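[retry 2/3] DUF1572 domain-containing protein: previous attempt timed out, resubmitting with same input.
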Amino acid sequence: MEIIKLFRKQFENYKGLGDRTFAQISDEEILWKYNEESNSLAVIVKHMHGNMLSRWTDFLNTDGEKDWRDRDGEFQGAYANKEEMLCQWEAGWACLFKALDTVTAENINTPIYIRGEEHSVADAFMRQLGHYSSHVGQIMYIGRMIKGKDWKGLSVPKDGSKAFNKAMFSK
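[retry 2/3] DUF1572 domain-containing protein: success.
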């Protein structure tokens, strides 16, 4: 099914952007916050992990907002270190990809529920693609703030559009 391939491609793209950001960040930097009202990288990952497990565990049979999820708690506390954070990052994505692997032509339009609201399977994945991409954007922006001039860009280099486009169009 083409739509599932497209979902996978986009989810993998956003996960990769997060991975490449985290590769530039130290143990201490995962806890950095712009101010007291801001979230650190560790908190964003904690929230994404909780959301992914809740949404995609047994998603065809149970509501995506599980009784065991503590969403408010996702914004408190932090991971002990970067390794622990990355372990949870990987676990969340693994849960999502495992769920995506169960989608078939027969169940893609099946009604499923998130907080009692009905969605088709395809719509639920589209909804979460938007949610996760916004958080990956936050992760990248925070990473860039932390690293400053040492940031290694993840897309077209600043002032490099012409050279990038030339290379792309020459293929």
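[retry 2/3] DUF1572 domain-containing protein: The mean pLDDT is 96.
[retry 2/3] clearing retry counter.
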